[in-house]
Amino acid sequence: MKTLIVYYSYTNNNEMLAKILREKLKCDILKVEAVKKRNGFRIALDLLFNRTPRIKPYLCDIASYDQFVFVAPIWAGKIASPLKTFIMQERFYIQNYSFITICGGQPGQKQKLTTNLINLVQQEPGVVRELWINNLLPDDKRNTIKYTSEYRIQPEDLAKFDTEIDEFLTDIYASHASKQIVAQRSGGDDI
Ligand SMILES: Cc1cc2nc3c(=O)[nH]c(=O)nc-3n(C[C@H](O)[C@H](O)[C@H](O)COP(=O)(O)O)c2cc1C
Predict the structure, then answer these.
(1) Choosing a second label site near 104 at 20 to 30 A (CA), which of 23, 113, 157, 164?
(2) What ligand 1 atom has the least distance to the C-alpha of 132?
(3) Atom of ligand 1 at shortest distance to CA of 16?
(4) pLDDT tens series, the chain, 191 aa
(5) Structure letter (DSSP) for residue 92
(6) 182 C-alpha to center of ligand 1: Å?
């Protein structure tokens, strides 16, 4: 299995996560960058008009990978627009994929993200996982966009997420293995 981590990060939280995943998976990694760096105004317009902002060209043979791990922030319940551009550009090559994010955290959001991914890739994701900043905040600052969006992840925060990150990795291997079994079974019907 050849895995590629593809990530976008605006304020570096998800970049830190992507780099931890690369250490654990020992695989290749690709950073997605918008041609016009995002700011609050551009993010708002992306969301309002459902835009796919242009991204910088990358030197990477996407077709040579058979598993993708996408990492990006969530903006207004959606996957950050530059990663959306990448997925739409490359979806033909994306067979097995999973998604993980460090986001503010909202109940019920995971289902929306899963639907968002299915619409983009036209395929079910293996695993979708949210790591909630809310769980790092004191009670009086939870569920407030000001505090969640201003929060900058520290190395000790990643240590707190370590069990969830390891569960995510176990789940993606399990998901890949079960897909292979299904493929083998459906391939075995031709006798
Ligand atoms: C404009 C904006 C909208 C956001 N909307 C959500 C949201 O709907 N749900 C959520 O869980 N987090 C939301 N967040 C929080 C980000 O997902 C979170 O801060 C993330 O860790 C930022 O990642 P980054 O540092 O990699 O850019 C939002 C942040 C911003 C700036």
Answers:
(1) 23
(2) 11
(3) 26
(4) 899 999 999 999 999 999 999 999 999 999 999 999 999 999 999 999 999 999 999 999 999 999 999 999 999 999 999 999 999 999 999 989 999 999 999 999 999 999 999 999 999 999 999 999 999 999 999 999 999 999 999 999 999 999 999 999 999 999 988 887 877 777 655 54
(5) G
(6) 36
Nearest protein CA to atom 4 of ligand 1, as residue: 75
Sequence spans of domains, the chain? 3-190
Q: Which CATH number fits domain 3-190: 3.30.450.20, 3.40.50.360, 3.40.50.150, 3.40.1190.10?
A: 3.40.50.360
User: Using CA atoms, how far apart are residues 102 and 80, in angstroms rounded to an integer?
Assistant: 12
Angle 123-127-129 (CA atoms, 0-180°, nearest 5)?
A: 125
Q: What is the spatial distance between Cα 130 and Cα 165, in angstroms, rounded to a whole number?
A: 10
- Side chain identity at residue 115, one-letter code: T
